[in-house]
Prior knowledge:
Distance between the termini: 44 Å
Oligomer: single chain
Radius of gyration: 29 Å
Helix content: 40-55%
Amino acid sequence: MNYLPEWKIYLIKKLLLSTDEELDQFSRGSSIPSLMHYTGLLEKDGIDEEKFFKYLLDLASEKPPLLELDSLRISRTYEEVYKKAIAKINALKHRKQIASLGSGVANKEDYIKVDEYCELGKNLYTKMVNGEHITISEFKNLLNLSFANSAFTFGLQYYTLFEIKLNRKGLKNKLDNYIDSFLKSDLIPAQGENYYSVDNQRKHILQTLKNLSDSYGYKNIALNLGQIANGYDDYGNLIYTNAPSYKFYESILSLERTGDIVIKDIRDKEVVLSVISEHLIQELEKPFGEAINSDKNEEHNLSVADKKKLSILEKLKEEWDLTPKSDDEGVIFQTGMRAHLRFAGETKISHQKYLSWTSEAGISDWYEFENILNILKEEGLILKFESVDESR
């Protein structure tokens, strides 16, 4: 299974969070744009009305349907909008022709003629006038026509109305199955993309929750991707990570799936949640250094040399999580060395990152860094490494 586009995950969860009372506002009919506005998807990147419409149809076409588009009809308002739009276009043509001809007479053959059925055809026009429902097939054709020929349909998608009914159980099962695949690391990223491991993503969220809960408690915490990508380590130190390497919604929803949190609202890049797991609350209440990962307590007793080694090993592990895996290639660090980790894969590390690693770990020069790599090799954590930069 592939990763879903972010907006599709957002839409399903947003619909599930909507109460029946909130959806009742569409009892007189919703349009594609008005439903997009309600869910907040109008402001999200990578989504337009046509994609939204087609995904609704996909959900409605599943077996059993995950939602129903009911009471389909064309608003009578469309006739007035259509005729006014034609009149406005012809008036503009008239002014331009008069201006170009001076005192001459405008050629009325260039004007757009008002279609007596408003470009709908006699059958659909009659249904519109009589307030009759249209079929799902007619609904699809109208919207496809509107998206393909917007200049001639004058915003028909705003006046083709429907009521939406959710199969909440089906939608929840679809989302749960997807998140279960995420938790098992079974989702396939798009070409050229890699994401932090599931454990790392969840860990960073919990570390950020630890910091936020100290100030704001455990209920109705607003959390966004920026807070996680620039979060806190186990000791309260600010950490800077790679935001594109996170799957924000999947990670948050996985914590809800495992019973640690409950999501109260979802809006664009922000999720409002409450911590409900007593065990997690107890962990978050521990001082930094004790919370989230109990094995981190052992770091306080490490020697300086071991702390340096551990720091480099953790950096390698982070890169490893982002590395495409294969059976016969090593992991290449393009900054003066090539290292082959266990379970082969390949990645490139910039010289800037190498400098950042050594500075953060307190490593004085390449030779000390090389010595650490030799120790990791002896311990079986690195299969081999070699210099690829003669000027090291």
